[in-house]
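Sample A.
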Amino acid sequence: MSLLRQLLLSVTLAILVILAGAIIVSVGSARQYLDAQLQGQSDATATSLALTLSQPSNQDPTVRELLISVLFDSGQFRVIEFLDPTGRILTRRQKEDGRDSRIAAPDWFSHLLPLERHEAQRQVTNGWTQLGVVRLQADDAYARNALWANTVRIVLLTLGAGVLWGLFVLVLMRWLRQALQDDVTARVQAMADAAAGDDLPPVRHPAMVELREVARIITRTHEQVRATAAERQSRIESLELELNQDEVTGLANRKYFINELRRMLEPSAPDQGVDGHVMLFRQCDLQAINQTMSRQVVDRWLRNMGRLVLEVLRERLGPQAWLARLNGSDFAFVLPMMPGPMAVRVAQAVGEILQAQRIQLGQAGLCRWRMVLTDFEPGEPLGDVLSRLDEALMRAESAGHTDVEYLPGEDLRSLTGGRGGGEQAWRTLLRNALDEDWFALATRRDPSAASEGRTLGLLTLHEPGASEPLSGYLFMPPAVRLGLSAACDLQAVGLGLGWLRTHPGDLVLRVSLASILHEEFRGELAGLLAEMPDQSARLLIDLDAYGLVAQRAQVVAFAAMLREHGVRLGLRRFAEQPEALLYLHEIRPEYLRVSGTLLAAQADSPGARRLLAAVLDTAREIGAVADLSAGS
């Protein structure tokens, strides 16, 4: 309800209350006046009749009865009585009970506003002798008719005033609305429609003095709005940029990436749609970089990296290419309408830029990038594509290689049996596998071993109802992400010790770095090895050389615990972490596996030859075997 309507309604209610109060007061005053008149009439008539009957000439019973009858016939009294001194009625005239035809007032009105029955009595004497008492009661028919007529007139007058007030309110409402329309609303609308540099129409002279100040305020407000319009427009443009842009690198942000990918996956028409590939790459050591360098240097490095990657994308895709920063360490871009081979080439070109932009992190070596690639089709749920990227990223982080991890959607569905690769699905599967003991150990001869009789063991997961078991290559990356790698590695060691009990030779098992970092895992593993010392002496634990560089103290402590139980240690991917040469004497591994990349590069690279020679010399000094026949 508008303020004007509220004001007029409140005034109308006040008028109605006043009119109702006036009716009540007027009718009440009239009733009191009529009561007083009836009482005065009764008293005066009783006095006059008593004096008349006190005259000696009127004391005859016949004359007395005649006088009373004459007075009763006047119709002004309802009851007239003459009583002797003992109270016995000598003469009585009374109207019969019932509806009096002279009363025009309705019964409900008589019950609502009753008049009192006024009685009066006087003594009749003869000198000092009392002859009797005259008692009479006035008839209120005329008074009731007068009260009814007066009330009807007052109500009709009040209704007439109310109707006139209603008409006045309607006229007033129309006039006020028109005044507001002409003097306020029109100017506000003009201010809303006016451009930033336009002036308002000239100020009119409002019909109400109060509106003149309002019109002037509107004009001043328009001037202020016009003065700040350019600034607001600039801020809006800035906010639009911030909404879809990362403030540090100037690249697109996560919201822009999600919206663009959703637009490609959800075409507006069934025959429309765009397929293609999505690449995501993550800087795994951003926290360490922030601790090593200042914020300004890191921001400048990220901006430069983003600029170089974007240049590569624009060379391959055109000027419409874009790169998004999803969070602090994750970057992604979309390759629409691009087949797999071309997408892999673009991903490799981006990977070369990223490898060239790596930063030295002290003794831990260069920072690491993890790169993943997957495809998408029109109509595919956005969550499936993002889950596939997350699955590929978990694999890349677990594998530790510097190549692009390519995971097509069809491959993931065939490997996981249509289960999908989201964290929740993996958490449920791994929890059930640990609770229901679905794990087994797959073994094969280790082709890269320097000595005969060594077997490589790999943990597998046998889900009931699945056509094929899942290898550790598939489920260990999610286990590391979900914090379940320690439990899985304990399962692998337990199954390996059981295998050694029934098989000859040595067994090689891989243990993830994430498990070694858990103190509880080291304690449970020590207890497991202590129970089977004969089998522990034939067990070899294979570790990634990166762990010795990144988590030196934990790996050295883990190696010492293994030596206490007779378990030997091996290092793989040694060529990718040459800094590990500094710490080999602390763990004294059984063997060092050098990748084929370093072996292939020694023919053309003097540095590769020197590095390989240093590895061989160090291995001989600590009594380890340098395995040059296998990759990572």
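Sample B.
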Amino acid sequence: MGILLNSYKVQSQEKLYPNEFPLEDVTLLDELFKDARDLNIEVLLKYDIDRFLAPYRKEAGLKPKANPYPNWEGLDGHVGGHYLSAMAINYAATADKDCKERMDYMIVEIKACQEANAINNKEWGVGYAGGFPNSNSLWSAFKRGDFSVYNSSWAPFYNLHKMYAGLRDAWLYGDSEEAKTLFLKFCDWGIDISSGLTDEQMETMLHMEHGGMPEVFADAYQITGDEKYLIAAKRYAHKAFLEPLSEGIDILDNTHANTQIPKFVGFERIAELSNDDKYHRAGGFFWETVTNNRSLAFGGNSRKEHFPSKAASIDYINEDDGPESCNSYNMLKLTEDLFRGQPDAKYADYYERTLYNHILSTQHPEHGGYVYFTSARPRHYRVYSAPNEAMWCCVGTGMENHGKYNQFIYTHAKNSLYLNLFIASELNWKEKGIKLKQETNFPEEGQTKLIITEGKSNFNLLVRYPNWVKDGALKILVNGEHFNHTNKPSSYISVDRTWEKGDEVQIILPMHNTIEQVPNVPQYIAFLHGPILLGAETGVEDLKGIIADDSRFGQYPGGQRLPLNEAPILVEDDLLNIADKLEPIKDKPLHFKLNVDMENHIENHLKPFYKIHDSRYMMYWLSLTKSGYQSYTDSLGTLEKQKLELEKRTVDFVGTGEQQPESDHYMKHFKSTTGNSQDDFWRAAGDGGYFSYLMSTQNATNLELMVRYWAFYWGTKKFDIFIDDEKLVSVDTSNHSNISQFIETSYKIPEYMVKGKEKVRVRFQAQPNASTSEVYNIRLIKTAN
């Protein structure tokens, strides 16, 4: 690459986030986090930068220097921005010269692209630094208010936001003034490209995923003080979510989770810089409802990338694709922003839990691959990326996650030092002339020690009293003397004194075992020791695709789902105290045996979830009392009885999507597709297309048509069902529940439609510009008496 290293002092995130210490002023000593970070840098340096940059050069009219990575189709360039952020972050954290060299090289290349866009795309491209496919057609039309190309593309502003953030981070963490200049020019482009749009058009445009666009404009405002950027930040704020959540109204059911989270990061940044309380109320309420009502025990949220409704929370157990890593990446950003405005211990409690149990666990400890979905389904597994292969969104955020482990250990405000995380580290608080060292083996032991290693200064040490330590159990000793306090869990204990070299603060943090339930599904529980989620390995059978290729859907596990009814079931009458049945395993910290009666027994050796890799696992356990277990087995018998009764009522049956049943029923179709999902076959039709079957009535007239659908769907389905050529019903799934389970819907057939007919043709007809639901099977059944 041939870029000479500039010799300048690294400054860091304090320029935008004044309560945070520069990454270079906090040194990781902890092997757990330091090893993860160092492995991540090793993996990052295996990537070819010119391949990341190829989409940017192509769209600017410059010849690419290498073939681009096979990004997700339509998202070329998005990972390049994440990679630039990762280089800047890791350079700041470690002073790694290779990271610095790569960061500088990318800035030079992006500058060349930005300059070429000003010449080659002068009508719309002045300041443009994007690599989005077909940029010329997209942005030239967009600037005129024509959204036709925009609406048929996959998340253009989401894509661009990654390079916005990359350039900002190259200045913020890497101290590149050139990156700041490029960033602000790109922000000016973002203002100009939307300048002709009405407020209504902006709101329409923002219905598509757009990443953290409000955040970057707020950052530009803080950098420059120029009011135009704050105006832009508010203009790019999606009012459809800002307004209701600022009033405490939760409209998140069935919305795409990581589309929403970055919006609220932006809202909170706007609030921080403008003191606009509406934006703060929205950010705060969003955080509360996501962390309290929509998150699992390891801190992650969403299934199938969406926030489930209360009724659909069982999807966390049923589905493979559990919480997405990107969501936690962005939730931690929002948490830091909220904490800066109001340093409440609840934010640090959440941050700690998510950092250990989700973020740390999403990196493979040997090959360094990143995880997209962390399944909570009993006995399922996770898939990892490989360098130069998969280019998922969670590869991009994964590149950044493991360089920021030292970012939130300590924060400061005025004369106070906050101890937020118990991670072995050293802090150089230059402003105070103080150096301190944190010695701990946490979480393998429930204590930590702070030692002042250099300097003398008066300041207020604020020690977090975690929510996982019992009331009255946290002890503090200052130079061996007990420090009295009356604090409660989830608070900060103030130790205000003049500190000098040699002072020691010992903090005793007794850890105990607890359980947490799946939100709205109390019969499924997880075990935690302190903030650490405990899981159990359950086998290595059929781990298909565990290291993903670069296919479009490689992030999904290809191995079979193991039946839920064959998973372990805990049978215990005293469920409230079931955590007390965890017995520590000698000489193995954080390892436990569960002394509980178990159906479908496995070797119940529990250990930290972040240590489980390359295996199927249990995170949540079905837990029932003895009478509840009897009811459970009785319900299985009831389901079997219902199945047999349905078979008796069935007059004719078609397994849609299956060759022989469809052939046997003389299928006709147009614009129709088929596939396999949920271990079953389906058929659908789109845009005026149809599929139909000739079905036997057995001369019965008291008939219903029963259709099996999968209740979770992408987009609205609108279609009609015909018996012969007469419409039976029009179906619109706009108000369906979006719960991941099969539903059988029955439609009563009027007697005149079947009277005197031995066979009828049942047709599913998609409406124009719409599609049918995926139909998994259909039955003609006799109406129950």
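B remarks: The domain at 648-782 is CATH 2.60.120.260 (Jelly Rolls). The longest strand covers residues 680-696.
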